[in-house]
Amino acid sequence: MILVGAKVQEVRRRAKYILIGLDNNWTVLIHLGMSGRLFIDKPSDAHELRKHQHFDFLLNDGTRIALVDPRRFGVVDAFPSSPEALPPFMKRLGIEPLGEEPLTPVAIKNLFEKTHSPIKNALLDQTKIVGLGNIYVCEALFRAGIHPQKTANTLSQTEYEHLSQIIPEILHEALAAGGSTLRDYVTVDGQKGSFQELHQVYGRAGDACPICAQKKHRALITKITQSGRSTFFCPQHQKSEH
Ligand SMILES: [Zn+2]
């Protein structure tokens, strides 16, 4: 048993993975999947087994950390802590938009200058840039005024600049709001996120575009499907050059 008796040295995040570094040179990886949730039960709490509780850690002070995952898309794994031992999918992860290095227009351009897929799909590609889900990509392209079907390597310098500013901006706003609760997402202390109230385009098909409305133009948010995922955008100010 890798975990028994080991001391937790650090807890960090890489992409959508929670990584717990142990003093025995192993790292535990947790991915919450679509709707997994970690519960932290204090030693004094009743430690009843919850429905869909598939895994738990018991700490030496009696605290229990439990993974509840009704849809079973979550993952718990462990691997040696050396860089060579990283699982292949971890080695392939792209850049962190909120990493120590700021996201620059050059970094975005380097990612996409050889990418022939639509910018919407390219931004969702976790081997290029991590942590952006469907909602945040729709919101970023909307705010940047970039058509979601525009080929990634045809973006202008100005568009790369806009994205490098807007992506971290949106992620910071979403973090401050506790994320987006569409169905059942809650933070680790049980709070629902409120960023969904700030969505300007996601889930708003048929609504008037707020950016165009500011310029006294009338345009309606439109929904299309790209690679099986819904894309919401404004056909007026998110111009396509095709
Ligand atoms: Zn618009």
Automatic annotation (TrEMBL):
Report the sequence similarity comment from the record. Belongs to the FPG family.
Q: How does it assemble?
A: Monomer.
Q: Which reaction does it catalyse?
A: Hydrolysis of DNA containing ring-opened 7-methylguanine residues, releasing 2,6-diamino-4-hydroxy-5-(N-methyl)formamidopyrimidine; 2'-deoxyribonucleotide-(2'-deoxyribose 5'-phosphate)-2'-deoxyribonucleotide-DNA = a 3'-end 2'-deoxyribonucleotide-(2,3-dehydro-2,3-deoxyribose 5'-phosphate)-DNA + a 5'-end 5'-phospho-2'-deoxyribonucleoside-DNA + H(+)
Record InterPro entries: FPG_cat, FPG_Glyclase, FPG_N, H2TH_FPG, Ribosomal_uS13-like_H2TH, Znf_DNA_glyclase/AP_lyase
Q: What is the lineage of its organism?
A: Bacteria, Pseudomonadati, Pseudomonadota, Alphaproteobacteria, Acetobacterales
Name this polypeptide is given:
Formamidopyrimidine-DNA glycosylase
Q: What is its EC number?
A: 3.2.2.23, 4.2.99.18
| Alphabetical UniProt keywords | DNA damage, DNA repair, DNA-binding, Glycosidase, Hydrolase, Lyase, Metal-binding, Multifunctional enzyme, Zinc, Zinc-finger
PANTHER family according to UniProt: FORMAMIDOPYRIMIDINE-DNA GLYCOSYLASE
Q: Which domain of life is it from?
A: Bacteria
Residues covered by the FPG-type domain: 200-239
Which residue range or ranges hold the Formamidopyrimidine-DNA glycosylase catalytic domain?
A: 1-74
